[in-house]
């Protein structure tokens, strides 16, 4: 009969309930079994407080820090603390503990594996309780079981975290495959549209030359020629981007690339009353990059930022170095991205704008991927921030292979 | 005697456009709708320059270029295509000029004049 409690806690351990629920039930079982009024499991949180994750307690526990009160001392000491108070006593055998008002017995047992304590089992009774040797041994066993509970849940959480990271990476891969497929399709389409378009444009030009001077048709043909030229330009752009166009990597300065991309936007920035805050760390930031392509990537990011601040704001362009990476950050004060869209913004054709193509960010993303870099987005301050990381080209070793060798050492 | 250009392109609309435009420039123009047809014409007719599209069904322009240069080493060939990346293809290095297709034929006409000389 005495061992029933162990069996019950074991049953809890293998049940499918969440950790908090298991701990709460185990605490209740222990309180009943040991004839205490309250039982709590305190686990250390990231702020250095002992968080009460389960309690069969009539009133809330005070926030215990390490070394504070009976549970805090048991945690730091790594050993059982058992204190009693006689009716007339004021203090608890020299320990101050605001959580013991109205109690006569307090007992704290550390949940401890090897040299590491991860929590405390904390029991309080309004009456004076002395545990028999058997009950103490059972308490010790129960504490071990609770420790296993906590540990296995940690392992499980790790497992879930790794699993969701894997899922996320898989999603990214799927997206890049989608982009590749889209690229093939767009390039084929561009080619198919281009040939008939050249005929139309060529004949329009011929027709224009054959019309007598001053005839009204000349203006129309002029217009047709200009529009056809515009479509041709778009088609060329698509073909150049997407048809397995290998990047031509040269050592180049990231500061300069951003500055150059920025030059295109001088007018728009003035029109929308946008302040530009250019921050850059001293010294060049050498990266292996195809300058024209990186400019296109930055153009897209800057254009997005500006579009989000049509009524004014601050465009922050930051370039810096973080270890092996050159970092460029483009952020705005345009209100940020609706969290529900966060997962979709790099998907081709996803757009929240009335006249958006939904290709700006996917193109920026694919260019940066081709540079073996990463792009991340988050909401920050009053807007969105895009963070681009590119591997730094070794200052003394402009080619990438020597750079890698350097890292491996 | 007028110099003769062979235009090789699978798009009929473009072949006719090139023919009219280049004849206006004063050249004689022959047409071929495929790589295979262009090699036949080269065997039969005397040709001074080949204007060659790269992307064609069947024998593509790169292959035609290789065969032409094997047999008629000094015959000038202008490659034209929508794809700038062919510039990196070793097979195209043997061409005498490389033109990105456009509805504006100014560059093409100038290139032909440069290769064949000012007067047709």
Overall description:
The complex is a heterodimer of chains A (409) and B (120). Chain A has 409 residues and is α+β, with helices and mostly antiparallel strands. Chain A has 3 domains: 4-160, Beta-Lactamase; 165-242, Helix Hairpins (Orthogonal Bundle); 250-408, Heat Shock Protein 90. Chain A has helices at 4-14, 19-34, 69-77, 133-210, 217-242, 254-263, 266-271, 291-307, 360-370, 400-408; strands at residues 38-44, 49-56, 64-65, 81-84, 105-113, 116-125, 250-253, 274-280, 286-289, 313-322, 325-331, 374-380, 383-391. In chain A, the strands form 3 sheets. Chain A has a 6-stranded antiparallel β-sheet, sandwiched between helices. Chain A has a 5-stranded mixed β-sheet with strand order 8-10-11-13-12. In chain A, helix 2 (19-34) packs antiparallel against helix 4. Chain B has 120 residues and is an alpha/beta fold. Chain B has a single domain (4-116), classed as Response regulator (Rossmann fold, 3-Layer(aba) Sandwich). Chain B contains 4 helices and 5 strands. Chain B has helices at 12-24, 35-44, 61-71, 106-116, and strands at residues 4-8, 28-32, 49-53, 77-81, 97-100. In chain B, helix 3 (61-71) links the parallel strand 3 and strand 4. In chain B, helix 2 runs parallel beside helix 3. The longest helix of chain B has 13 residues, at 12-24. Chains A and B meet through helix 4 and helix 5 of A and helix 1 of B.
